[in-house]
């Protein structure tokens, strides 16, 4: 049998920059990045897609953005800044996805130009996917404007939209060209989004960094009350841990079944879907972390006091730790628990669930004892 | 300014296997590959998408496929083999794309399972894209059944569909898990597909391998008449040159503007679109090669005799070397020539066109002299 072997590596590299007032004409962070990519032979184009929730709270923003890019050598902004709604709804809207693809076509965004998403994780997931499938991938820059997107989704390599009610069923791995985190955006966040975004930091601290968890625990009341310095540290360290895991754990595009950053997520994804996305992603993950932490305790892994510390941190953040859909419904299995198989399919391969061996140390299991799981749900209910 | 740097490499690796009668129970090539990927902990699934043009000529095939996979340890075939039409039309059909996504969902194809496309380049481009966007990329295996897909498209890393008449506007880079080239499929090819598929070999020989071009030239009449041994060599060497270029030229996912394998393609893509895909891809590329070879001659690069050799090889293959749409239309620019800008946008960045410095040696230019181009068109017309 004749045979030809293909084998190559592709390098992916991008910076996550932290800088306040990005579109202030005096702030050169973004301009410097772009100008380092300019080429004499032709002008590159920029297409900005803006989150309507951000635009509503920052009425001068579109004008600031237009002015800012006028100054950037070698780049030309498309004649229109496209403002679309924010929030999970945009990930349930295929026509909206295609309208972004149409804009990429209409404004001649080629593979050396940039699509720039400014908004929450939902908008960034949508924009990243539209960019990834147009011309087999145009470059995109992320400017995350929520706690969650600055500390997690915006700094990672994934995008996606929901399909037929299935969370992130359509999507791809497409690292951004760069990420710019501007804390000023966070000041206008709704309290629910401010608080729920912190959950990803709780998550990554629990599986990777006990000292970080201690710090979050100590800060949890101040964070919830809006302490910006504490929030800055939380976002920075959380982003750093995510970046390190993605780049350092050997499987950035998730070809294996191991997915430690999905701690607390198997039930969360299903809860989001079953509540029609009325639960925020972070709220659903809060519940997921609570259940899987208590389950880890019931397995004999986590001490009771550590389990209680985790629940207390989540409650200090005024986040939910239980949901009625986790319970059996009239003797039938909980629809969330029934979603375990769907989670396995989404990840692929063998069921792989991250649990906590101790605070700061995740460990994977390949099965869940359903009796123990319902017992964990019960404990969460009693600890609300 | 604080800053976190992400940097990682992703390895991509796959084999291109040549083997006759793939689905003969005695042929272990495909089974051995799959079984090497089996895992004890769970059964992986297989979903086969079959080209209707292939199925029509191989009426036992679906049954053979079903039987074949029954024997493969660790894998389970989906209850349905999905047969869809073949040909470019499937790339103009977004509902069909989503019906494949739906099948991936319905049959629980996870990221450790495989979608297997059996068919021409059009079907493989569609199937590869459906797989690439489902669950952020499920694995796919390609079983190309045309000359063109066995020697070029099927062994590469790209997929895609047309969008609003724009060739391959939607797509991605998604290397296959493996490729299996079975020459027996080629025996039922329509003469147009048999002949036009050889053009990609002419193309890659012209830009990279003079000895290969000499061989194709010597074989051109025999190839056209159906000589299977000559065809086997043509496909093997052409596939090998494509694989080597993709893996070895340092830019497998085409982040730069250089695209030597697109020699002859700038006009071809536009001609396909303008003729409503009545021209086969290979026929359009034949015209594109003719025009760009003559243009290379007019530039003083290629000798007149080499230019004539190229036209003769294409004509020996009974392929077109000219099209009326290349000419000015009532004093207006040719719509093909007007498509140069669209080609630039698709590739991105600076206009980059491969021409021939000599037979076996491509070289890039960044502008085309339109007067010279129309003169080249005229010469092609007179040499039909
Ligand atoms: N790609 C990934 O790796 C990844 C990882 C985690 C989460 N996610 C996804 O991220 C999404 C959640 O993102 P999110 O939590 O950022 O919420 P979101 O994007 O859904 O936004 C929530 C609300 O906040 C508004 N908003 C955004 N920025 C604002 C600002 N600065 N001021 C005022 N309002 C603002 C939005 O308009 C929206 O109404 C989910 O779809 C989740 O699945 C993706
Ligand atoms: N992805 C890439 O890198 C890449 C590269 C080059 C070309 N392409 C694409 O490939 C497509 C062309 O593919 P193609 O030339 O293979 O043609 P095709 O897939 O369009 O098929 C042509 C016809 O042959 C039929 N057919 C296929 N196999 C057969 C067989 N064994 N016996 C009988 N009939 C058979 C099909 O049903 C169809 O009617 C174009 O869309 C082109 O853009 C992609
Ligand atoms: Zn999350
Ligand atoms: Zn081609």
UniProtKB/TrEMBL annotation, chains A, B:
| Xref: SUPFAM superfamilies | Dehydroquinate synthase-like (SSF56796)
Q: Which GO terms describe its molecular function?
A: 3-dehydroquinate synthase activity
**A matching Pfam family:** DHQS_C
Outline the extent of the 3-dehydroquinate synthase N-terminal domain.
Answer: 82-195
Domain of life, per lineage: Bacteria
Ranges for domain 3-dehydroquinate synthase C-terminal come to: 197-324
Any keyword Nucleotidyltransferase?
no
Cofactor field? NAD(+)
Q: Which UniProt keywords apply?
A: Amino-acid biosynthesis, Aromatic amino acid biosynthesis, Lyase, NAD
Biological processes, Gene Ontology terms: amino acid biosynthetic process; aromatic amino acid family biosynthetic process
Spell out the protein name for this chain: 3-dehydroquinate synthase
Organism of derivation? Chitinophaga arvensicola
């Amino acid at each position: 049998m004749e045979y030809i072997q293909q084998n190559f590596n592709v390098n992916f590299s991008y910076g996550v920059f932290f800088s306040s007032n990005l579109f202030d004409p005096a702030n050169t962070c973004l301009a410097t990045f772009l100008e380092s990519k300019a080429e004499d032979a032709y002008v590159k184009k920029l297409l900005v897609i803006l989150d309507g929730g951000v635009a509503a709270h920052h009425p001068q923003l579109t004008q600031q953005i237009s002015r800012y890019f006028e100054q950037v050598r070698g780049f030309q902004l498309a004649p229109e800044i496209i403002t679309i709604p924010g929030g999970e709804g945009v990930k349930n809207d295929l026509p909206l996805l295609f309208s972004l693809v149409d804009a990429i076509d209409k404004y001649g965004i080629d593979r050396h130009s940039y699509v720039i998403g400014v908004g929450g994780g939902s908008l960034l997931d949508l924009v990243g996917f539209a960019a990834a499938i147009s011309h087999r991938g145009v470059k995109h820059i992320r400017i995350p404007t929520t706690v969650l997107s600055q500390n997690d989704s915006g700094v990672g390599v994934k995008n996606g939209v929901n399909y037929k009610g299935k969370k992130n069923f359509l999507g791809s791995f497409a690292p951004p060209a760069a990420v710019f985190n501007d804390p000023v955006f966070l000041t206008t966040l709704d309290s629910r989004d401010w608080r729920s975004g912190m959950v990803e930091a709780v998550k990554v601290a629990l599986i990777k960094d006990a000292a970080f968890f201690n710090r979050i625990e100590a800060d949890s009341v101040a964070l919830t009350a809006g302490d910006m310095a504490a929030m800055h540290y939380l976002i920075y360290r959380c982003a750093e841990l995510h970046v390190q895991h993605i780049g350092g754990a050997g499987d950035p595009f998730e070809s294996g079944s191991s997915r430690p950053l999905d701690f607390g997520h198997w039930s969360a994804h299903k809860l989001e879907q079953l509540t029609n996305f009325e639960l925020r992603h972070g709220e659903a993950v809060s519940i997921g972390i609570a259940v899987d932490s208590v389950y880890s305790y019931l397995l004999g892994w986590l001490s009771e006091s550590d389990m209680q510390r985790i629940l207390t941190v989540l409650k200090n953040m005024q986040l939910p730790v239980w949901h009625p859909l986790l319970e059996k419904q009239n003797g039938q299995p909980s629809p969330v628990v029934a979603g375990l198989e769907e989670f396995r399919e989404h990840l692929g391969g063998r069921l792989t669930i991250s649990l906590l061996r101790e605070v700061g140390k995740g460990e994977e299991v390949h099965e869940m004892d359903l009796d123990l799981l319902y017992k964990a749900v019960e404990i969460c209910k009693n600890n609300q």
